[in-house]
Amino acid sequence: MKSEKVKKILIRSVNWIGDAVMTTPAISAIRKRFPDAHISVLAKPWVRDVFLNNPDIDEIVVYSDRGIHRGLSGKFRLIKELTKRCFDITFLFQNAFEAALITFLAGIPERIGYNTDGRGLLLTDPIETPQKVKRLFGVSGSGIKIMKMHHVEYYLRLINAVGIDGKGLPLVFNLTDEEQEEADRRLKDEGIGDGHLIVGINPGASYGPAKRWFLERYAMLSDMIVKNLGARVVIFGGVNEVKTAEEIAGITRYKPVVMAGRTTLRELGALVKRCSVFVTNDSGPMHIAAALNVPVVALFGSTNPDATGPWGSGHIIIKKELPCSPCFKKVCSEGYRCMDLITVDEVLESVKLKLLELKC
Length: 360
Hints:
The longest helix has 16 residues, at 344-359. By secondary structure, this protein is of the alpha/beta class. It contains 14 helices and 14 strands. Strand 12 (277-281), helix 11 (284-291) and strand 13 form a beta-alpha-beta unit. A six-stranded parallel beta sheet has the order 3-2-1-4-5-6, covered by helices on one side. A six-stranded parallel beta sheet has the order 11-10-9-12-13-14, sandwiched between helices.
């Protein structure tokens, strides 16, 4: 990195909600290094809300590739928009060739990113993935190359390579007072007041069923949390997970509050903030909960918690070690054994442990 007097910085966000949350320590480090610079984040519409109210970010530029930036003409429209802003540096957290090409054509003088996807010649600072296979990656039992480094550390290593230190910085998902007050009001409307313990359940995961614990077990867990621990249960999820949430609620004895499909991402975050414990598959809401310092009980199946587990201390990860794990498959042909081996009792005990810690 050559520039010292930097006035305008562009950060190209990744495209998954959980991954976007995991970039926030690196963004905080960039802000710390350039306290007076104007920092913009280029993000897809569904990721935008992750960065709202973040004190390290001055502007969010929405990359609407299904709208005004669709197709070749839309890409050139975006390039013109970026060119007019006269950025000095761009940090490309997204590894795609397109991210480098757009910023190259926008004439941004310094372009920093990992040298992946054949884009090295488009970068002024092509950062090699550290000893690509030997250190950063390992091989799973099914022969698939897997990342051993946590994604948070992966993004931090990119900026470390150009002299920016991000050690010890937390995840960021800042809520406004108004968002939190609205969450309290919505819970009160559901009969949940300040004196209630709340356990959040997030049974979905957009990647595929191999990341999802069984809905029948979530239903059993919900009933046992209410009966044995005296807490209220709230089920979370997006619009595509409403059916799953309703099926879980439909087979419970003690009816949970179903918020799946009824919240924006920001509203989901504000409601998760009120939870004493958050039980979840490997998913975007898992990382939001971790960013909000809510204790997480994370259930892992096909994916690797060393790379995408909840960041920070105070969380419990439940994963069964099998020869084929992690396989990263969306659908399992072996009966989802990694999820089948996770019992309701052990998840309940983990929830109980987290609730007991809150009382100490």
